[in-house]
Amino acid sequence: MRACLVLSERLIENMSVIILLLTILLFSMTFSDSVMVNKVSRDKFLELHNAERRRVGTQPLVWNTTLARSSAAYAAKCIWEHSKGKYGENLYRSRPRQNDTVKLAENSVKSWLKEKPGKLGPDWPCLKDLQCGHYTQIVWNTTKTVGCAVAYCRGTNPNLVVCQYFPAGNIIGRKPF
């Protein structure tokens, strides 16, 4: 009987260790490596955003560290949907893992710029279903600042780029510029 009690106690101790290890593993899988971009990447984000803004005649954006921190905090959650927060927001994801944040800046902004409508007409029909929403957020006339971050998430598309904008664009009933 004594042997059964000792065996039961050891089993309970081992189960506690196993549960603790599984909890740690599960907890570590829900988070990502989030990166505040360095100066070179920041400059690349600004360069690409502002080149298109120059083309359409809107003022250049300025880097906003508060937005970059907010972008990093949201990117770290590795959620592939907009945050629905108080800022405008563009998301981009890709694979395989890309450790070069300058390349991710280039790829993400170029992807968003591909949404540019073929004809920039007065009614902007693409805004009705937001087929060009990433593009219009980049060039939105009243937007003044941007901040971006990168996260490396688990899964099939490990690179996640989040750029947030203030003031937000894509206001229903208004034109981008």
From TrEMBL:
Gene3D superfamilies on file: CAP
Record-annotated SCP domain positions: 40-173
Pfam family, any one: CAP
An example Gene Ontology CC term for this record: extracellular region
PROSITE patterns given in the database record: CRISP_1 (PS01009), CRISP_2 (PS01010)
Domain of life: Eukaryota
SMART domains (UniProt xref): SCP
Listed InterPro entries: Allrgn_V5/Tpx1_CS, CAP_dom, CAP_sf, CRISP-related, V5_allergen-like
SUPFAM superfamilies attached to this UniProt entry: PR-1-like (SSF55797)
PANTHER family given in the database record: CYSTEINE-RICH SECRETORY PROTEIN-RELATED
Annotated protein name in UniProt: Uncharacterized protein LOC106070168 isoform X1
Species of origin: Biomphalaria glabrata (Bloodfluke planorb)
